[in-house]
Design brief:
The complex is a heterodimer of chains A (690) and B (353). With 690 residues, chain A is of the alpha+beta class. Chain A has 4 domains: 16-171, Tetratricopeptide repeat domain (Serine Threonine Protein Phosphatase 5, Tetratricopeptide repeat); 181-447, TolB, C-terminal domain (Neuraminidase), CATH 2.120.10; 481-573, Immunoglobulin-like (Sandwich); 586-690, OmpA-like domain (60s Ribosomal Protein L30, Chain: A, 2-Layer Sandwich). Helices cover 22% and strands 30% of the residues of chain A. Chain A is rod-shaped, with a radius of gyration of 62 Å. Chain B is mainly alpha-helical and 353 residues long. Among the domains of chain B are: 32-138, Alpha Horseshoe (Serine Threonine Protein Phosphatase 5, Tetratricopeptide repeat); 275-353, Alpha Horseshoe (Serine Threonine Protein Phosphatase 5, Tetratricopeptide repeat), CATH 1.25.40. Chain B is elongated, with a radius of gyration of 29 Å. Classes of the chains: A alpha+beta (690), B mainly alpha (353).
C-alpha cells in the first residue's frame, strides 16, 4: 500500500488541523470494483476525487468529497473510501458528518490507515463526543512508536486535554442566546471577522463568496478571494449585505480586521507583501485608499488582526512568528504603543506568556474600557481549535489569566473574531458550528444574566411558635376557712288559694335540739330567706296561725359549697283531713325507738295541740316494702304508737291522739330506689277532728 | 386568732339574723357573710371557670374578687392569665404589673408579663421580664427558653444559644429548646451544630413534625438532598396537612435537579393550600428549568396576584421572560423586584440600561 503524507495549509481560516498530516490511502481497482454496473463511472469518481484530494486545499477537498460520495454510492463498503470521505468532511465545514464515515472505515478495516483511530477520535472530538474521543485518542497514543511519540505525542496529549476542557466547559454552559445572523449575511461560503459600529447599526465583515471583486478564485485553496462586505441593522435584524467595493476591496484578499472606536478608521488585512495590515480612513461618506500600517507593526511576516484602544494610544495586533526564533507559536498577540513625543508607533512587543501560548492566537478585540482584550487561541484551556478568551490588564499592566468564554460560545472547532457591542449586551463572532449555512458563519451572541432562580421556603424555626406551649399559669384556689352557708329561700303560701302567708320559720339544730334561727316570711309576698351554715342537720318548721305547720329537714355536709336552695311551701289550714309528713321524726334503724333529733318536731306537735284544744289527730306509721308485710305492719304501728306515747308524755290527752300502722300499703313514692324508699319510711299527722 | 374569728362569725351571724328578723327580705339578693368571703368565693369560681376554659366568666369572677378585695394579688395574677388566654395582652400586662406591685418577688408574674410582651412583639420588655423572673428565683426552664426566643426574634442568635443552653441545663428533655437552639445555630451558620440539635430534639419528641422539617432544611443547606427529602417526607407523614414541608421537599427535589418531582410536590402543596404563593413561585422556577417559560410566567403571575409585593416572584418572572427574549418585560420585573426589596435584582438591572 502506498501512502502520500502532506501538510495542510490555508490563509486566514487555517484551522488547527494544519498541524497534522494524514495518510492518503490509494484505492485499487481490485479492492473497490465489484459489480459491473456503474463501475466505470465509479472508478472515474475515485480517480477525480484523488486528484482533488491531493491538492490539499479547502476548495479541492469539497470537490473531492463530491466525487467520493458518488463513488460511495457504487460501493459503500470500502474502508479506504469511507476514510477519505471522512477526511474530506474534516477539512470542510460539515465536520460533524465525518465521524460516521470514520467509524465505518474503522469497522471495515481497523488498519485501513495507521492513523484512522486518530481521525476517528478527532471526529468524535469535533462532535463534542468527548468521552469517545478521549478513549480513541488514548488508543491511538498507546500504539505510537517511540519515534511517533516524539513527533505527535504532544499533539495527542493536547487533544485529550482539549476534550477534558470540553467536558468541563459543557458541564457548566454560559447563559447566552447564539443566533445565526441569517441569510442576508451568511452564505454557503465563509463569513468571518465581523466588526460593528459603536451604535451597532453597521456591520463590516469578510466573506469568500463569488461576489468578490474580480470574481477570482485563489489558486492556493481554490476558494474565492476575500472581500469586505457591509450589512445594516433594521428592526433588530441584519439586512442588505453589500460588497464595500473599491478602494477597500481589491481583486486579491481583503479582509476586515477592526473598526476604530470612532468608526472613522477601518483596519483591514491584505495578502500583499506576505499579509499586512492597512488603515482606511472614512472621509465624509467615502473610504480613502487603504494605507499600510507602519513598519513597526507590519513586518515581513503575516499580520492578520489588529485592534486600537479607545484612546488611540495602543494597537494590539496578531503577528506570525518568524521562523524558529520565537517559541510562542505561529501567531501571537503583539502591542505597539503610540509615542506622543515622536508621534510614531513603537516597535510591537509580544504580550508574553500569560496571553500567548505555543499555539496560535488570533482575532484580537479591545473592549471599550481599553483594559480588556478578547482574542481567540488554540492554547490555554481551549476545547478544540480556536476558542475565544478574555483577559483584563490590572493597574500595573499585568494581564489576568485568560478566561474561556465557555460553551456554547466556544465549540471544539474554530471560534474566532469576537467583537462586543458598546453596551456589552451582544457579541458577534465567527463559528463553523453545525447548523449554519455552510462553512464559517457569523453569529450574534446575546449575553444573559447569570441564572438565579430563587426559591421561597419557610420553616418552623421556633417550636413554641408553631406548637405553643401551655404557658398559662394561674394561682391555685384559696381554702375557704370560714363557715360555708346554704341559702334557703322561697315563698310561703296558703295551699288552696296560693295567697302569701306571714309564717313563722324556726330552724332547729337537730343534733343539739336547739332552735338556732327564727324568721318570718313577708306578709305581702310570702318570701323568706334562711342562711344555714354547713356541716349540720337542720329541722325547719314553718308555722302560721290557723294552719297546719310544715316541716323540712336539711342535711348540709361540711364539704358543701355555697349554694342557694329554693323551697316554696304551702301551708294547709287546720281542716279535717289535712295531713303533713313529719320530716324531722327519726327512729333507730329497724326499731320503734325515737331518736333524740325527733324531739323538737314532736314538741311542735304538742304545742299545736295545746293551742288548738279541739284538734284530734291520727299519727300514722308507714314503711318501705323491704321485709315482710307482718314485720312492716308491726313496725309502722309501733312507730306511730311511739309518737303518740311521746305526746302523751308531754301532756297531750290520749283521747285526742290515735295511731295506726299502714305498713307499706300507702307509699308516696316508688320503692325502686333508696331515695324513694326513704320517702316512704315516714310518720304522718292527719287532722281527724277540729 | 381562731377564737377571734369564731367570735366574729357569731357576731355577724347575729347581725344577719336581726336583719332578716326585722326587715322585709324582698331586697335581699346577696348574702353578706362573715369576714368578706365573697372575694375568695368569686376567686375560686374564677379558677373553676378558667380551668373550664370559660375565660370571660373567669375574668368576671376575678374582677368580682378584686372588687371585694383590691389587694388580692392572686386574683390580679389569674385575671391576667385569663386575659392572656383571650389575647387581651395589654390587659394582661396591666394585671401582671398590678400583681408585681402587690407581690414584687413573684417570678411567675414577671414571666407571665414577659409572655404577654412577647405576644405583642415587644421583645426587649419581654426579655427584661424573663430575666427578672430568673433573678427572682424561677427554676423553670421556660424562663430562659422564652428569653432565648426573644434573642432569636431580635437576631441575637449567639445570646439565644446561651439561653437555650440554660433551659436545657434545667431540663435535659426540653425538645423545644433543642429545636430552637438548632435554629439559632443554623442562623449562625453552624449547620453541623444545628443538625445535632434537631436530631436530639427528634430523639426526644419523635412525633413532632416540625423537627423533621427543620432538620430537612439543614440537610438541604448541606446539599444532602436525599436525606432532606426523607426528613420532609417523615414530617408530612406525621402531619399530612404540613404544606410547608411539601413545599420544602419540592425545593429539595429542585435542588437535586428533579424538576418534575419538584413540580409534583409543589402541586400537592398547592392542592392543600391554594393560596400559598411560595409554592407557586417555586413551581415557576421548576417550570423555568424545564424550559416551560410560558407556564412559568403564568404561575409567577399568580403568586404575584396573591402577594402583590412578592419581590422574588417578580425577579423570577423576569428571569423567565429573559429566556423568552422578552427583555423589556424582564427588566420591568427586575426593577419591581428591586423596588420591593430584592437587592440582587440590581445586578440584573445593569443589563437593562
Amino acid at each position: 500500500m502506498r501512502y502520500i503524507v502532506f501538510a495542510l495549509f490555508t490563509i486566514i481560516f487555517s484551522g488547527s488541523w494544519s498541524a497534522y498530516a494524514q495518510e492518503f490511502p490509494l484505492i485499487s481497482e481490485e479492492e473497490f470494483l465489484n459489480t459491473r454496473s456503474g463501475q466505470r463511472d465509479a472508478w472515474e469518481n475515485i480517480q477525480d476525487g484523488n486528484d482533488f484530494f491531493i491538492q490539499d486545499t479547502k476548495g479541492t477537498y469539497l470537490k473531492a468529497l463530491d466525487k467520493y460520495l458518488q463513488a460511495n454510492e457504487y460501493n459503500p463498503n470500502n474502508a479506504k473510501l469511507n476514510y477519505l470521505i471522512g477526511i474530506c468532511y474534516m477539512k470542510t465545514a460539515q465536520k460533524s458528518l465525518a465521524a460516521g464515515f470514520m467509524e465505518k472505515a474503522y469497522r471495515l478495516n481497523p488498519h485501513v490507515t495507521f492513523d484512522v483511530v486518530f481521525w476517528l477520535a478527532w471526529a468524535y472530538h469535533l462532535n463534542s463526543d468527548f468521552d469517545k474521543a478521549i478513549k480513541s485518542y488514548k488508543t491511538y497514543y498507546e500504539d505510537l512508536s517511540p519515534a511517533e511519540l516524539r513527533t505527535t505525542g504532544k499533539l495527542i496529549e493536547k487533544k485529550i486535554a482539549e476534550c477534558k476542557s470540553g467536558i468541563e466547559l459543557t458541564t457548566s454552559p454560559v447563559r447566552v442566546f447564539i443566533d445565526n445572523l441569517g441569510a442576508d449575511v451568511n452564505t454557503a461560503y465563509s463569513e468571518y471577522s465581523p466588526v460593528i459600529s459603536a451604535d451597532e447599526e453597521v456591520m463590516l465583515y469578510t466573506s469568500r463568496r463569488p461576489e468578490t471583486l474580480g470574481e477570482k478564485i485563489d489558486p492556493n485553496d481554490l476558494l474565492f478571494f476575500e472581500d469586505i462586505y457591509m450589512a445594516f441593522k433594521s428592526k433588530n435584524k441584519w439586512v442588505a449585505s453589500v460588497n464595500m467595493g473599491k478602494p477597500v476591496n481589491t481583486k486579491k484578499h481583503d479582509a476586515c480586521v477592526s473598526l476604530s472606536p470612532d468608526g472613522q478608521s477601518l483596519f483591514i488585512f491584505r495578502s500583499s507583501s506576505g499579509g499586512n495590515l492597512y488603515e482606511c480612513i472614512l472621509q465624509g461618506d467615502e473610504w480613502l485608499d487603504p494605507a499600510p500600517l507602519p513598519k513597526v507593526i507590519n513586518s515581513s511576516m503575516h499580520e492578520t488582526s489588529a485592534a486600537l484602544t479607545p484612546d488611540g494610544k495602543k494597537v494590539y495586533f496578531i503577528r506570525q512568528k518568524e521562523g524558529t526564533e520565537t517559541t510562542e507559536g505561529d501567531k501571537d498577540i503583539f502591542v505597539s504603543v503610540f509615542n506622543s513625543i515622536t508621534q510614531k508607533w513603537e516597535e510591537g512587543q509580544n504580550l508574553g506568556k500569560v496571553i500567548n501560548t505555543p499555539y496560535n492566537e488570533d482575532g484580537i478585540f479591545v473592549h471599550p474600557d481599553g483594559k480588556t482584550i478578547y482574542f481567540s487561541s488554540e492554547g490555554h484551556n481551549s476545547m478544540g481549535g480556536y476558542d475565544i478568551f478574555y483577559s483584563k490588564m490590572d493597574d500595573k499592566g499585568r494581564w489576568s489569566k485568560p478566561q474561556n468564554l465557555g460553551s456554547p460560545i466556544n465549540t471544539p472547532d474554530d471560534d474566532l473574531f469576537f467583537v462586543l457591542s458598546s453596551d456589552g449586551k451582544r457579541g458577534y463572532y465567527s463559528s463553523t458550528k453545525p447548523g449554519g449555512f455552510g462553512d464559517a458563519d457569523l453569529y450574534q451572541i446575546t449575553f444573559l444574566n447569570p441564572e438565579l432562580l430563587v426559591q421561597s421556603n419557610e420553616d418552623n424555626l421556633i417550636a413554641a411558635i408553631s406548637s405553643p406551649m401551655a404557658l398559662s399559669n394561674i394561682e391555685s384556689s384559696v381554702e375557704l376557712k370560714k363557715i360555708r352557708l346554704t341559702i334557703v329561700k322561697g315563698l310561703v303560701t296558703e295551699a288552696m288559694s296560693n295567697n302569701p302567708i306571714e309564717a313563722q320559720i324556726e330552724v332547729t339544730d337537730n343534733e343539739k335540739n336547739e332552735i338556732v334561727f327564727r324568721n318570718v316570711s313577708n306578709s305581702k309576698t310570702g318570701k323568706y330567706l334562711l342562711t344555714l351554715p354547713s356541716g349540720k342537720n337542720y329541722g325547719i318548721a314553718i308555722k302560721a296561725d290557723g294552719y297546719l305547720w310544715h316541716s323540712e329537714n336539711f342535711n348540709i355536709p361540711f364539704a358543701s359549697e355555697y349554694q342557694v336552695v329554693e323551697k316554696n311551701i304551702s301551708l294547709l289550714s287546720l281542716d279535717i283531713g289535712s295531713k303533713i309528713v313529719l320530716k324531722n321524726v327519726f327512729f333507730e334503724s329497724g326499731k320503734s325507738v325515737l331518736k333524740f333529733e325527733s324531739f323538737p318536731e314532736l314538741e311542735q306537735i304538742a304545742n299545736l295541740l295545746e293551742i288548738y284544744q279541739n284538734l284530734v289527730i291520727e299519727i300514722s306509721g308507714h314503711t318501705d316494702n323491704v321485709g315482710t308485710t307482718a314485720v312492716n305492719q308491726t313496725l309502722s304501728t309501733n312507730r306511730a304508737k311511739a309518737v303518740v306515747d311521746y305526746l302523751v308524755s308531754k301532756g297531750v290527752p290520749a283521747n285526742r291522739l290515735q295511731y295506726k300502722g299502714y305498713g307499706f300499703t300507702k307509699p308516696i313514692a316508688g320503692n325502686d330506689t333508696e331515695e324513694h324508699r326513704a320517702l316512704n319510711r315516714r310518720v304522718e299527722f292527719t287532722i281527724i277532728q277540729n | 386568732m381562731k377564737k377571734f374569728i369564731l367570735l366574729t362569725v357569731f357576731t355577724v351571724m347575729l347581725a344577719v339574723f336581726n336583719i332578716y328578723a326585722q326587715n322585709n327580705p324582698d331586697s335581699i339578693v346577696t348574702l353578706v357573710v362573715a369576714d368578706n368571703q365573697e372575694a375568695e368565693i368569686a376567686y375560686n369560681k374564677g379558677i373553676a371557670n378558667f380551668n373550664g376554659k370559660n375565660y370571660e366568666l373567669a375574668i368576671s369572677n376575678f374582677t368580682e374578687a378584686i372588687t371585694y378585695r383590691n389587694n388580692f394579688d392572686k386574683a390580679y395574677f389569674n385575671r391576667a392569665s385569663a386575659k392572656a388566654e383571650i389575647k387581651d395582652f395589654a390587659g394582661a400586662i396591666d394585671d401582671f404589673t398590678m400583681t408585681i406591685q402587690l407581690a414584687p418577688q413573684n417570678p411567675k408574674a414577671y414571666f407571665g408579663r414577659g409572655v404577654a410582651y412577647f405576644n405583642i412583639a415587644n421583645f426587649d420588655k419581654a426579655l427584661a421580664d424573663f430575666q427578672t423572673s430568673m433573678e427572682s428565683g424561677s427554676a423553670d426552664a421556660a424562663a430562659p427558653y422564652q428569653a432565648g426566643i426573644c434573642y432569636f426574634q431580635t437576631g441575637r442568635y449567639a445570646d439565644a444559644v446561651k439561653m437555650f443552653d440554660k433551659a436545657i441545663s434545667i431540663d435535659f428533655s426540653f425538645a423545644y429548646a433543642y429545636n430552637d437552639r438548632g435554629s439559632a445555630k443554623r442562623n449562625l451558620g453552624d449547620l453541623e451544630g444545628a443538625l445535632a440539635d434537631y436530631t436530639k430534639a427528634i430523639n426526644l419528641k419523635p412525633e413532632m413534625a416540625i423537627l423533621y422539617n427543620n432538620r430537612g432544611s439543614i440537610l438541604r443547606k448541606m446539599n444532602e438532598f436525599d436525606k432532606a427529602i426523607d426528613d420532609y417526607t417523615k414530617a408530612v407523614e406525621l402531619n399530612p396537612e404540613y404544606y410547608m414541608a411539601l413545599n420544602n421537599r419540592g425545593s429539595a427535589r429542585f435542588e437535586s435537579k428533579d424538576y418534575e418531582g419538584a413540580i409534583k410536590d409543589f402541586d400537592a402543596c398547592l392542592a392543600m393550600k391554594t393560596d400559598y404563593a411560595y409554592a407557586l413561585n417555586n413551581k415557576g422556577t421548576a417550570l423555568t428549568k424545564l424550559k416551560k417559560y410560558t407556564e412559568a410566567v403564568e404561575v409567577f403571575t399568580k403568586a404575584i396576584e396573591l402577594q402583590p409585593a412578592y419581590a422574588i416572584a417578580y425577579f423570577n418572572r423576569g428571569s423567565a421572560k429573559e429566556l423568552m427574549r422578552d427583555f423589556t418585560g424582564a427588566c420591568s420585573d427586575w426593577k419591581t423586584a428591586l423596588k420591593f426589596g430584592f437587592s440582587d435584582a440590581a445586578n440584573y438591572i445593569d443589563s437593562c440600561k
